[in-house]
Design a protein that fits this description.
single chain, 244 residues, Rossmann fold, seven-stranded mixed β-sheet, globular
């Protein structure tokens, strides 16, 4: 390794530490000491359990992907394991055998957590090819270590606006991965899919800055944990009328 590359690496590590420190103090102000401590404990526990290192903050401009897609994207930051635990625990048996679509799947953290739940299939959608590769590596390693092959998973390098939903997709996860423009287009695709094949759909929306977009399109907010996450549900009957 050259002196220059070592220096670049050191600067990169320092930059990451500063970003994480800012996030930590922001959480203290927003959530208080106890909840921030619980978040930290869950981070340590699950990173150790899964044998991964996914706690990075990557500004949008440093992500690979098309310029058009990045205009609507937010900075990469992984979902909190505590929030994942609370959201899926609240759903309980209602998500059993569900088909999960994780929009903005990043390094695969949500999919790794969801793999511990009796779901039918896991699908990650991510605009960054580099993050897709990291996520695939993380999931391959996790499944290899635990010697299992279920639930089956796939990571798809795609813009969420253009991803055609499988007809059985009924559970959706977002950690504020993009702006309201893309949220509306994702909702359009969910509605078109459910009108074709009527089914109940559940959306877990972490950091739900654009939650009103779901509420205005027939989804009912059935649960909210402050500003950390909200759960929306929708059921379209055969004639296309919404019933929640």
């Amino acid at each position: 390794m050259t002196r220059c590359s070592r220096r670049d690496t050191q600067i990169g590590v320092l930059t990451q530490k500063l970003r994480l420190m800012r996030q930590f103090f922001s959480s203290l102000r927003k959530r208080g000491i106890w909840r921030t401590l619980r978040i930290s404990i869950f981070e340590i526990y699950y990173e150790y359990k899964f044998g991964t290192d996914t706690l990075y903050i990557i500004p949008t401009e440093q992500l690979d992907g098309t310029a058009d897609a990045k205009v609507h994207a937010t900075d990469y930051f992984p979902s909190s394991y505590l929030i994942l635990h609370q959201a899926f625990s609240w759903l309980g048996e209602t998500c059993r055998d569900g088909v999960l679509v994780d929009y903005g799947s990043g390094m695969g953290r949500t999919l790794m957590y969801a793999s511990t739940i009796p779901l039918k299939r896991l699908i990650g959608i991510e605009i960054s090819k580099e993050l897709c590769a990291i996520a695939s590596k993380n999931l391959d390693r996790l499944y290899g270590r635990s010697k299992r092959n279920r639930p089956p998973w796939s990571i798809i390098n795609s813009d969420a606006r253009f991803f055609d939903l499988p007809e059985d997709a009924n559970l959706f996860y977002l950690f504020n991965p993009f702006d309201a423009v893309v949220v509306r287009q994702v909702i359009d695709r969910i509605l078109v899919s459910t009108r074709t094949v009527p089914r109940k759909c559940t959306v877990i929306y972490a950091n739900p800055l654009h939650g009103s977009e779901f509420a205005s399109r027939g989804f009912t907010e059935v649960f909210r944990q402050n500003d950390d996450f909200a759960v929306f549900q929708l059921y379209l009957e055969a004639r296309g009328s919404a019933r929640t």
